[in-house]
Design a protein that fits this description.
The chain is an alpha+beta fold. 26% of the residues lie in helices and 18% in strands. It contains three helices and five strands.
Length: 120
């Protein structure tokens, strides 16, 4: 018996086209193109860290995250990066590189949506 590709248990997934991934922060399913991929790497000091992979081309295990501060905070609070990337260590991996990436992305988006009509 063949399985139906669409499940009636999750009707909200019917509008997703292409690859679908789950955000490690909010645990919501979303199209892969809407999420930021993160991988295990190292920070500037050589310590284990979670690093952003916006091009999604880095080798190895990756996890996906909505590029929002809310989902990032949830993932950090739940210690989801270490579990998703199977990174071990007592304090857990540093997520500072991802936080910096999100801050840069947010500031660049705010700069592009600036209202120039009020300037003289």
């Amino acid at each position: 018996m063949a399985r139906s590709p669409k499940s009636s248990a999750r009707p909200d997934d019917t509008d997703l086209s292409g690859p679908v991934r789950t955000c490690v922060g909010c645990r919501q399913r979303a199209a892969k193109r809407e999420l930021l991929r993160v991988t295990a790497g190292s920070d500037v000091d050589g310590q284990p860290a979670v690093v952003p992979d916006p091009s999604a081309t880095a080798p190895g295990r990756g996890a996906h995250l909505h590029p929002t501060q809310e989902c990032f905070d949830l993932a950090v609070r739940r210690k989801a990066f270490g579990r998703a990337l199977r990174m071990s260590g007592s304090p857990g991996p540093s997520s500072a590189p991802v936080a910096e990436h999100l801050a840069r992305a947010t500031s660049s988006r705010e700069g592009t949506t600036r209202n120039w009509s009020s300037s003289s």
